[in-house]
Design a protein that fits this description.
By secondary structure, the protein is of the alpha+beta class. Helices cover 45% and strands 11% of the residues. α6 crosses α10. Bound molecules: glutamine.
């Protein structure tokens, strides 16, 4: 039995968001989408799961696509080394989150996107629909309810940032967009196709450019340093590829110029990253030699 097979079913499904508890930890899917148009999948690559924090990469891409965005005055670019929903640093650091992939950073990005577009969720949803080719991509209303019900810590972070003047919109509006963006139901195959936007250095599926190449590479740099939160060092050590994980059990990994890879298994480790997903990506990196280290 391979490492990946024996890791399937390990870990705990996220239980702080009640809707996620329903997932069966024995599920597993894996997709590789290459920049030259090939898609390879195994397992349950067509089963939708909650995108959760992986949405943060695409929301940031949209914000960075605007010229002269003020986002880097509002959020930092340093790994936090702490859980994605910790409050303490925010108070000590004047309401400026360490990076855009921890929750407070992503709430600031959602707030900026709402300000820039008038409807941040729709902008994000439209981007994902176009890049995946899935016109029926949905925000799961049961997940939204669950995110809202379990959202006090995110609310606390957003109000704290507002007290430092780091929110543009009313807090409840920005949070509404954030909760909904986390609740988009997506499959491994769809997410891997969407990730090609980043793997192609900012080029969209239709050939138009969303991001400058440098911005796309910076998005990926931040995935490496911040995308798996307080496990980013361990991910660099074990996998050596930029990764962004979500508590729905998905991990998106990018090999710039080559491919976008998604591993999904709902069983998480203590830091909120998919156990089987990480093992599968380590095996992928070893087999392909794609580790950047
Ligand atoms: N929606 C989740 C939250 O706000 C996202 C966290 C994650 O996927 N790491 O806590």
């Amino acid at each position: 039995m391979s490492d990946t097979e024996s890791s399937i079913g390990s870990g705990q499904v996220a239980d702080y968001i009640p809707d996620l508890v329903k997932a069966d930890p024995k599920q597993f899917g894996f997709t590789i989408a290459t920049v030259d148009g090939h898609v390879y999948s195994v397992g349950e690559a067509h089963t939708p799961f909650a995108i959760e924090s992986i949405s943060k990469v695409f929301a940031l891409a949209l914000v960075l696509s605007r010229k002269e965005t003020p986002i880097w005055q509002r959020v930092g670019r340093e790994p936090s080394g702490t859980p994605f929903n910790l409050l303490i640093e925010l108070e000590a650091e004047n309401g400026i989150p360490r990076n855009p992939y921890i929750n407070p950073g992503a709430i600031v990005v959602a707030d900026q996107l709402l300000h820039d577009t008038g409807n941040g969720l729709e902008a994000l949803h439209a981007l994902l629909r176009a890049e995946t080719g899935a016109a029926d991509l949905q925000v799961d209303s049961v997940t939204v309810e669950s995110e809202e019900g379990a959202g006090d810590r995110n609310r606390a972070m957003a109000y704290l940032m507002a007290s430092f003047g780091n929110m543009i919109n009313p807090v409840h509006q920005a949070l509404d967009h954030y909760f909904r963006q986390c609740s988009i139901a997506i499959t491994c195959e769809q997410l891997a196709k969407a990730g090609l936007l980043v793997a192609r250095d900012g080029l969209r599926e239709d050939g138009s450019r969303l991001l400058h190449r440098a911005d796309a590479r910076q998005l990926v740099a931040l995935m490496t340093t911040c995308g798996t939160y307080d496990a980013a060092g361990e991910f660099a050590y074990r996998i050596g590829l930029p990764c962004q994980s979500g508590v729905g059990g998905g991990i998106l990994s990018i090999v710039p110029g080559k491919c976008s890879v998604v591993a999904w298994g709902p069983g998480l480790d203590a830091k909120g990253n998919s156990v089987a997903g990480a093992v599968a990506l380590a095996s992928f990196a070893r087999t392909t030699g794609y580790s950047v280290f």
